[in-house]
Amino acid sequence: MNDKSISRLILGVSIFVFAVVVILQSKIFNIFPDKSAIPSWVFVLPKLNAIINGTCSVLLLLSLYFIRKKDISTHKKLNIITFILSSLFLVSYIIFHATGIKTTYGGTGPVRTVYYFILITHIVLAAVVLPLVLFSFQKGLQMQVEKHKRLVRWSYPIWLYVTITGVIVYLMIAPYYTF
Fold this sequence. Notes:
Elements: H1 3-25, H2 45-68, H3 72-98, H4 109-141, H5 145-173
Transmembrane segments: 9-28, 48-66, 78-96, 116-137, 158-177
Keywords: Membrane, Transmembrane, Transmembrane helix
Protein name: Putative membrane protein
């Protein structure tokens, strides 16, 4: 596969994932119109997602540590594990939101403002980071080191922010879950 085909695939996957998430967030589609039919394991997914995000945060920090030590092999392995976990997160996130379960933040005052600031920046940057991470992976796996470094200057801090704020959003909204 040439670079042009890979770029098209990355953009196609990124647009598809973004469209799926937008459709699920709009609640125009859910696989369980009857909420009593939702399997009990689905209600564990938000906590699982927070655990995955937290793990990804730690792995990203370790990845940075090892690349600074010039240990490319460990850096690569950590990033592949992080990518796999992030992919599992995405599948879990889509499954949970496909159920149509409504989650509403119940905090008030300044904490509410902080929550929505974190949530909005998390959502916007999560949409932006997928193609950046995919392109970073492409360049890294092809050992196009300079291109990889240029991309990672953007993708790494955004990916780290998204994983950390994913945990924070969960911790802030979890007390208001009604399930």
